[in-house]
Amino acid sequence: MNYNLLEGKKGIIFGALDPNSIAWKVAQRAHQEGAKIILTNAPIALRMGTINELAKECNCEVIGADATSIPDLENLFNKSSEIFGGKIDFVLHSIGMSPNVRKNKHYTSLDYEYYHKTIDISSMSLHKVLQVAQKLDAINEWGSVVALTYIAAQRVFPDYNDMADAKSMLESIARSYGYHYGKAKKVRINTISQSPTKTTAGSGVKGFDGFFNYADMMSPLGNASSEACADYCITLFSDLTRMVTMQNLFHDGGFSFTGVSQEVMDKFLEQ
What we know:
The structure is a single chain. By secondary structure, the protein is α/β, with parallel strands linked by helices. The chain is built from 10 helices and 7 strands. The chain has a single domain (10-269), classed as Rossmann fold (3-Layer(aba) Sandwich). The chain has helices spanning 22-32, 43-48, 51-58, 70-84, 99-102, 112-135, 163-185, 208-218, 226-237, 262-269, and strands spanning 10-14, 36-40, 61-62, 88-93, 139-149, 188-194, 248-251. The termini are far apart.
């Protein structure tokens, strides 16, 4: 069901790679709710994915941009302003990648060049996006920026590796920049801590199926789907959440506040 929550709004969505991406679902929902959008991803991701199919579906343009590159981000925001004929209203930051995870480096034996890339791509990129947007005055007052995170920022999930550090930094940037951008332009910035989700990136984490099944068994509502996460993003882009900022919002079926579920207890009792 559509509610026209984003009628007249314009936004940029980072990170749609393929139909498994949460960003892909967010783009579809934003379009359905009346928004005009621009899709962006790193040039290599544009070559690997099928983003042009999404662009056709959403009747929008694709602008390649490396989110770790200030010149690329300046070009992205300037071109978006030209296309839209003005400022934007929302941004989705759905970016994360760890070379250490891809190369199966254990957390106690990280390659520090890879570690730097993890932080730059997965968290510092949010600061760069916000800094460029503010300097160009690219976001309307009461605009909304949402970044996707995971509870490994607060709790230890051994195989999540240096991505846990990156997510911690991502959430801190959202809080700190949320204060400054809120004071300056009433722009609100939040993170959504999503359930384990079967995306292309998520499925690359060692032991992901175990993560997924455990969280589903622990959560009273079960794991939140990518479609449900997209719905939540839409509410945060809308005017209904104007006073919500600097928050890390758990969207995980109750996993984050469940000590133990009966289903998990039953597994132990079976032994």
